[in-house]
Structures are given as C-alpha cells and as structure tokens.
From TrEMBL:
UniProt function note: Required for rescue of stalled ribosomes mediated by trans-translation. Binds to transfer-messenger RNA (tmRNA), required for stable association of tmRNA with ribosomes. tmRNA and SmpB together mimic tRNA shape, replacing the anticodon stem-loop with SmpB. tmRNA is encoded by the ssrA gene; the 2 termini fold to resemble tRNA(Ala) and it encodes a 'tag peptide', a short internal open reading frame. During trans-translation Ala-aminoacylated tmRNA acts like a tRNA, entering the A-site of stalled ribosomes, displacing the stalled mRNA.
Keyword field contains Cytoplasm: yes
InterPro entries named in the record: SmpB, SsrA-bd_prot, SsrA-bd_prot_CS
Protein's UniProt name: SsrA-binding protein
Keyword Signal: no
Compartments, as annotated in UniProt: Cytoplasm
Gene source species: Candidatus Clostridium stratigraminis
Principal subcellular localization: cytoplasm
Gene (name only): smpB
Domain of life from the UniProt record: Bacteria
Keyword set, alphabetical order: Cytoplasm, RNA-binding
Pfam families recorded: SmpB
Similarity-based family: Belongs to the SmpB family.
C-alpha cells in the first residue's frame, strides 16, 4: 500500500487573510538555490509583506525573506531577492488577467514542502476596508462564543 505524503507548512502569511479577500488560490513551484532550500527546511522563511508580480511573462515573488543558511558561507544569496515562480503558461496568462483588474493583487499565502519540493500557495486577492476587517473579527468572536456555549452544554 502506497504511503500518502503530507504537506509540511513552513511559513504562512496570516496577515494576507486578514487584509485581503482571497478570490482564488493556486500552487506554484519556486526557483531556489541549495542554501535557500536548506534554510526553508529549517523553517527560516517569512512571507510577511511579500507579494507576487508578473513581469515579461514570468511570475516573481518579492520581499519574501529567507534567512541565510548558517553553514552556507559564500553560497548564501540575498535574503530578500526576487524569486521566480514556476507556473505553466496558461496559469501565468490567467493570473496576469486576474491581477490586471482594478484592486486585485497576487499574494503568497503559504510556503510548504510537497514530496520534497518547496511550493508556494499563491492567491489572487482584493483589499479589505477597515469595516470589512471589523465584521470579520465580530463574526469570529460570535462563532467562538457559540462554540464555547455548545461545549458547556455538552458537558452536562
């Protein structure tokens, strides 16, 4: 019987789900050098304030911080360098069309390992207003209160 491998999430952009409405998400590979892969496997990556853009028919993720590998010495690259995303041509065209619309952007949602490869979950996002964020917080608080009351009733 074949083993089913799990995805190990290395970094998650929680702020993206708070600041944006995620319309669509897709998986992309990412072009890395060896020391970056070792550093990501050690959990030393950060997606905060990162975003993706499409230039000249290629997708790049910007401001993704990958800490230098301790034992990498001269082979370490710049921690904030632009990294190319690996997507099929039709996926690139689709993302370019979606992100070209007014108010939409491409945001990396999470960085994870899948079958030994580093993958990025890329979301097409639209910015939230402050009142949208407050509504989300109120809904979350209400759900938490309901769950707490249901748990108390089930005890008795």
């Amino acid at each position: 019987m074949a083993k089913q491998k799990e995805n190990k999430t290395v970094a998650e952009n929680r702020k993206a789900r708070h600041d944006y409405f995620i319309e669509e998400a897709m998986e992309a590979g990412i072009e890395l050098v060896g020391t970056e892969v070792k550093s990501i496997r050690a959990g030393k990556a950060n997606l905060k304030d990162s975003y993706a853009e499409i230039r000249n028919g290629e997708a790049f993720v910007r401001n993704m911080h990958v800490s230098p590998y301790e034992k990498g010495n001269i082979f370490n690259k710049d921690p904030l360098r632009d990294r190319k995303l690996l997507l099929h041509k039709n996926e690139l065209i689709k993302l370019a069309a979606l992100s070209a619309q007014q108010g939409y952007t491409l945001v990396p949602l999470s960085l994870y390992l899948k079958n030994g490869m580093v993958k990025v979950s890329l979301g097409v996002a639209k910015g939230k207003h402050n009142y949208d964020k407050r509504d989300d917080m109120l809904e979350k608080a209400a759900k938490r209160d309901i769950d707490r009351q249901m748990k108390e009733k089930s005890r008795y």
